[in-house]
Amino acid sequence: MPTVLHSGYLTKRGHLFPTWKRRYFEMSDDGLLAYYKYPGGAVRGSFQFDKWTVIAPNSFYDDSVGFTLRGNMTCLYIKVDNEEEKEEWIAVLERLLHCVKDGKTWTQVIEGNINNSENDSAASIPAGRNIDSSNRTISDVDIDNSIELFHM
After folding, report:
1. Mean pLDDT, the chain cut into blocks of 10 residues (152 residues total)
2. Residue closest to 75 by CA, chosen among 61, 101, 55
3. In what order do the strands lie in the sheet with 32-36?
């Protein structure tokens, strides 16, 4: 069963109607970003990370901050409340994207780090966020260095 790495409320633009809706998002270690009306509710939609995924930080026409997720067949526009929240989410998403492109889940990479498998290319997760292996939650390490964008 996938492990939730990061969660919280974000505002997304609708696909059929371009209105902005506040939704609860959960990022799991298998590369799935799912969103709900509220925590524990029914899944309203999802975005699957794959080797074609691109994360583009941007500002929108109304001066709000956010980012865009572009995949093979879809695009997800996200607004956040402030620049710090934007940096936090992008750091988590970029690190997960790095794992997905290496063909591993975040949990596999962390277990590789715990077992000291330094020869594994995916085991060298960039600085910015760490995951606590005891309960698999993300904790702050260094917000100033949290945005390390990978351009693969």
Report:
1. 90 90 93 94 92 80 82 88 90 86 74 49 38 36 30 28
2. 55
3. 43-48, 32-36, 20-28, 4-13, 75-80, 65-70, 54-59
